[in-house]
Amino acid sequence: MINKYDVPLELNNENPITAILSYISPGMEILEMGPATGRLTRYLSEKMGCRVSIVEIDLPSFNKAIQFAEDGICANLDENDWYEHFCEKRFDAIIFADVIEHLNKPTEVINKAKSLLKNNGKLLFSIPNIAHNGIISQLINNRFQYTETGILDHTHVKFYTYYSFHQLMEDCGMAIFSEKAIYQDSNTGNWPDFECLNTEIKSILCNREFSDVFEFVFAAVTKEWYQEHEDELKIQRISAFKGTTAVSTLYFDYGEGFKPQDYIQSTMFIEPDGRFSVVFDLSRYKNLKQLRFDPCDYECKIRLLTVNGNFPKHISALHNYIVKNETIYFYSKDPNFLITDPELMSDSRLVITGEISKLSNDELIDIIHDQKAIYDGVISQEHEQVEKLNILYEQACKELDTLNNLLTSKCEETDLLKEEVVFLKEALDKKTEEVASLNELLAAKTEEAHDAKMQLIAVQNELKKLSADLEQISVAYNNILNSTCWRLTKPVRMLLDGVKSIISVFNNKIRRIFSMLKKTLWYIKHFGFKATVKKIESKIIRHKKINVKSFVPKQYNLLNVNPDLIETGKSVSVIIPTKNAGEEFGLLLKNLKNQKGFTEIEIVVVDSGSTDNTVELSKKYGAKVIEIRPEEFSHSYSRNLGVENANNEYLCIMTQDALPTSEYWLYHLYKTLNDNPEVAAVSCAEYCRMDSDLYYRAFAWNHYKYLGVLNGDILMSMPDNNDPILIRQNGQLSDVTCFIKRDILQKYRYRGNFAEDLDLGMRLISDGYKLAFLGNEVAIHSHNRGSYYYLKRRFVELVTLKNIFPDQPILDYRYEQVVKETIFLYYYVTKLLNEWQTGNLTYPFTVFREEFLKHFRLIRKNNFPLDKVFESLNVYDKVDEQTRKFLQEIIKQYSKMVTLANMGYNGVMIDAMEGYLNVVFDFMSECYEVVDNEIIAEFIDCVYKILTSVSGTFFAYSYLSSEDDRNQYIDFYKLIGEGV
Amino acid sequence: MKILYIVHQFYPHYGSGTEKVTFNIASMIQNAGNKVKVITYRVNHNGVVSGEFKNIKYHEFIYRKIPVLEFFLEKEPPKFTVDLINEDVLSFAKEILKKEKPDLVHVCHPMRVCSFLEAAEQMGIPCVVTATDLMYICPKIVMTTTLGDICTDALRGEKCNLTCYDVGNRNEERMALSERLLSKADSIVVPSIFIGNMIKKQMPNLDIRVIKHGMDYTGVKQQIRNYRLNDCINFAFVGSIQEHKGIHILIDEFMKIKANNIRLSIYGKYDDNFGQKLLNYAKKDERIRFNGAFEASMIDRVYEGLDVLVIPSICYESYSLVKHEAIMRNIPIIVSDIGALGDGIIHGVNGYKFSIAETKSLREIITSIANNPEQLNEIKKNLVSFVVPTIEQESFQYLTLYKKCIATHMKGDKSEYV
User: A274: distance to nearest CA of chain B, Å?
Assistant: First the structure.
């Protein structure tokens, strides 16, 4: 007898055996349950080199199969013999290929098999699916037909579905780690019961899980092994759907529209990835005009790919859909397309392919929301339209009302006009009467006029007589004017007129003359007669500005110039001495690197021991960095070192805290130098930064006003008279910016450690060069320094200038006097300033200036304060920390100097301070018409800087004028002379 | 020299871009030894009034050393903010100009106050006009139509009548008036090439110069950072969280990128509907963080923490302050390709540009940076040549311009009061 399961081993397609073999590795120890005649046994042992043992119930089959096995037993699996036979052995895999459904006690068998597994051994099953659509359709048709083989093999004693087998494994302590499915389509004709079902039921059945799975293949390991090795196992689950179907309907239109009875149906096959195809047989239908394709009866998204193999054309969605990314989303259960392509109507069949999937609830909600939004938009537009129409309607009504009112008023006007006509007619009658009476009056008046004419002729005769008299008088007057006597008295009369005009001029200028006289006497008193004469001389000369010329440089309007047009073909080296230049230094480097018009811009940084990122920043911007020790630094040495290391023809010496105004800045400086061959160097004025203080702004402004560059540029050269003050004025160069040719600077070099720029400038003009100082181009540069800095600065400045200009007049002042006056001024100025600090008032600037100076001048009438009262003022709050320490130090000396309460002020520092104040006031008058507390606060800060400046200047006088002081207070002078 | 600054609104009530620029220039010009005064409109009519002129009320005060005259119309006519000239304001302007006797009038924004420009021109006073935005050619200022579309060309007002029907149908006249006013000004300045080009498209005969807005560098640090492969990159958005700023595009594209080494920090108020919607949408991506608005004093710390700034605006930006705040700190930026955002940016050289018509290009840029952060080193190196001017540099350019305008103007017309 041939075993019905003795079927050929088919390895070329997907079937349960190939699926089981995919879990077997060569050389495995295998127990095969129910091998029939041993076709798989043979393959396993001969082809894969496995050691196979078998258990087979049918003896003839066993005898055949055992030839290929190492070991075996002919036994019933529901009994215990086989287990006893193999209980000492352990297997890598135990195969139940279509076996388990034949067993009465599957749980016991599986548990026994489980115990025969090696640690990582697995049980392999193939099982028919009782829930296949073919079986369900039989049941629907009230049939359950056993067969020779297949799912309803009459020898099957148990039936399994996907989930029931999973449960069986769970009950046996096994875990399925991999599963496969062998499908058989219900539509293939093998299942006539299915064919008979109506389309609705077919559709429901087809959409069930595993509905087309004919057989399952499971691989299971023990639960313990699974839990421990879950990460290593290749978990594989089958899809619940192999693919689905839907019933598609095609409606026909023969030219009279679509009718419910004119249709055919066909099954649409949908792959798991959503691709579908549906075929309609049109061979029996002729004269079709158009078709309607209803693909399914649920909400779906569809993309049509081909119609009869071609790109879909003349096909469009009909209702309830939106289109996104070429996909049509139908949000009703009746999706349909209209097909109008005439070529398709004559084809014998219609094949449509595409992609379809059901809309999820989320997608459906999204679409409904989108649609709602669109409709809301439409509704709101309609609403707006309605509102607009309402407005128009209201306007029209209003206009109508207006017109009605107008009509009414016109009617009223017409009535009034009628009344007026009647009235006028009456008036006309009256006027006619009046005209008659006036005619009578005219006749009377004509008579009167005749009388008046007669009188006029009489007056004219009288006038002729008077004219003759006047002529006689004129002749007499001319005789007098031409007489000798009148001519002789003319000078006396002219003198009298001149005296009158002189008196009026004198009245205007007399105050200024007195004021100058007073100043001159003061100067004679303190500096001597000779110095005074020199001062007056230089003032007169300076006013004339000898050898200083304004000029207009060419091509300065570069705001919108194409950078290519200003290419100079030259290279420039920018030299910057640095120390802890800070973050903003990067901005300077960036601006320099982006200057236009030059072939190369080399940056040479001479750094004297920065501890911040100055050196790193310089290197980042490609600068050449020369590092020197801090103690090596001097203004001249650093700059000269930079010059030695620079490579280009043109040099620009700058400070680390300056900034160009634009990308054409260097070009402007170059252009000035290049256009004026006699010019050796170009400097420019400063443009103060946003945070600069009033003191700095005012004195910078005053300096540039003095130079004459506030509104233009100047060229300076050596004054003819060699006046040192004029040389100083005309030798102005600025360390902030100095653009110069390399060969000139190499020749002259910088000298000294203070005012080295002025020194260079004076040497250049002495040798016949000219210097340009620009006001139209500037360098952005300023400081916001504390008051103590200015004390030191003024001290050093004056001492240095005296060295350069020995003729500079010096006031004879003593150290103690400066200490006394400094404290005096701090005390009374603070008192005065406190009065200006209250309230939130505004003052016209002119009033503020006048009032402040009036009260300031009164300060000199006070006595020196005793140190006790000094403590009552919060004077120290207004100055910086260093000034505070300085004041605290000198007040100790002051308390020893001033012991009496009635010592009157007798100094001149207050006059010097008024001079400084006037500079600041002059500057403020350029900026402010009205001042408020914020401006006054800035002014107050400025006043303290003026105080320290004056103090520094007078300490310099004491240092320069008294050798005793120099020796006695050597430490003090050293302290204030350092670090500027 | 005395300069009058004319601006649509001003401190202390308003302090956004144009007000800040006006204040900075006025302060600097005053510091340089000149008299200045700001004439502005008080939008909120409450508060102290110190004078009246016909139906206009005004008040004068000093704001941070700058004298300010603030006026308002008791009853504003319809379309007051759209129309350029108002007869009441015009007669008031003439009165004020007669009294103040300025050497030059600088109009910083025309809304509500453009009549001062007309008055100054009529009186022969030199005028400088700075067009900080597109109000001279667009009644809606932003060149966005009533339906929210971007407008590329107003067709001299003809198009406005059709697409912006809510601002009336006399836009051709408005454009002609605007052109007349601008052509009579002594100088027209714009902060960006983009604004200049947009105006020139409508008024090709105008001579327009660019002076970029200056920035305050106080406390600004150059960000020095060297990127290596696999570095984590913090992208950021800084600004108001509104739809036209394109933040939703950035979030959407960012979420599509599957890289673990990128973060997105969003700075700006997000408590309105749009912000909350975005917050919920971005919740599922842990790489995205909403940080809210920050105080002005925190700005340096915010920029210090980010690597790339993204400005994905889908409307025209006339001069993006955040763009320049990032560049002055040497921080690379990704910008959309409309408006002035792309001015000076060369894609892949000193920054990145993406097309708003194809937003996946934004995703591609971010992905490319995530895969190869080292490319930022080159961008940062090249960004060095992008100079953002300081406030001092900007104001000095204006000072030079004022002097030139006054000098050339005096050669021609004489003003009424000179």
Answer: 24
- How buried is B88 (Cβ within 10 angstroms: 0-12 exposed, 13-18 middle, 19+ buried)? middle
Nearest residue to A569 via CA among A604, A603, A595, A600? A600
**Interchain CB distance below 8 Å, A928 and B24:** no
% chain B with pLDDT above 90: 74
* pLDDT computed for residue A810 by the predictor: 85
What pLDDT, in 10s, does the model give residues A928-942?
999 999 999 999 999
Using CA atoms, how far apart are residues A937 and A838, in angstroms rounded to an integer?
10
Interchain contact, A691 vs B218, CB within 8 Å = yes
> Nearest residue on chain A to B62, judged by CA atoms?
A932
d(CA A751, CA A734) in angstroms, rounded, equals: 14
Q: In this structure, what token pair is assigned to residue B178?
A: 């605007």
Crossing angle of the two packed helices A845-858 and A909-927, in degrees rounded to 10? 170
* pLDDT tens for each residue of A402-445: 788 888 778 787 787 888 778 778 878 877 787 777 777 777 77
User: Rounded to a whole number, what is the distance in angstroms from the first to the last CA of chain A?
Assistant: 122
The whole-number average pLDDT for the span A374-391 is: 81
Please identify among residues 58-117 of chain B the ones whose CB lies closer than 8 Å to any CB of chain A. 62, 64-65, 67
- What's CA A352's distance to the chain center, in Å? 54
Mean pLDDT of all residues belonging to chain A: 84
B221 CA to chain A: closest CA distance, Å? Answer: 6
Contact, A883 vs A949, CB < 8 A? Answer: no
Residues in chain A closer than 8 A to B212 (CB atoms): none
For residue B219, the distance in angstroms to the closest alpha carbon of chain A comes to 8
Q: Report CA Rg, chain A.
A: 59
Confidence of residue B60 (pLDDT cuts 50, 70, 90): very high
User: What are the chain A neighbours of B396 within 8 Å (beta carbons)?
Assistant: 661-662, 687, 778, 780
* Chain segment B29-53, per-residue pLDDT in tens: 999 999 999 999 999 888 899 899 9
CB-based contact, B209 to chain A, within 8 Å: yes
Residue type, A422: V
Name the DSSP letter for residue B214. Answer: P
Give which of A934, A642, A316 is closest to B65, Cα–Cα.
Answer: A934
What is the bridge-based pairing of β-strands B66-73 and B35-41?
parallel
Contact B393 A662 (CB under 8 A): yes
Nearest-by-CA chain B residue for A685: B32
pLDDT tens digit sequence for A941-979: 999 999 999 999 999 999 999 899 999 999 999 989 887
Judged by average pLDDT, the poorest of A138-152, A554-568, A834-848 is A554-568
Count of CB pairs separated by less than 8 Å, A with B: 94
Contact A937, A837 (CB under 8 A): yes
For the four alpha carbons of A627, A631, A635 and A639, in that order, the dihedral sign comes to negative
Distance from CA of B393 to the nearest CA of A (A): 5
Question: Can you tell me the mean pLDDT for A896-907?
Answer: 80
Q: Where is average pLDDT lowest: A187-196, A773-782, A918-927?
A: A187-196
Shortest CA distance from A928: residue in chain B: B35
Distance from CA of B203 to the nearest CA of A (A): 18
Looking at residue A767, what is its pLDDT?
92
- Residue pair A936/A836 in contact by the 8 Å Cβ criterion: yes
Write the residue in B384, B392, B403 that is nearest to A687 by C-beta: B392
Cβ within 8 Å, pair B31-A691: no
Query: Do residue B392 and residue A560 have CB atoms under 8 angstroms apart?
Result: no
Q: How far apart are CA A336 and CA A318, in angstroms?
A: 6
Place of tokens 């050691």: A51
Sign of CA dihedral B387, B393, B395, B400: negative
Spacing of C-alpha A928 from chain mean position: 35
User: What is the tens place of the pLDDT at every residue in A275-305?
Assistant: 888 888 888 888 888 999 999 888 888 988 8
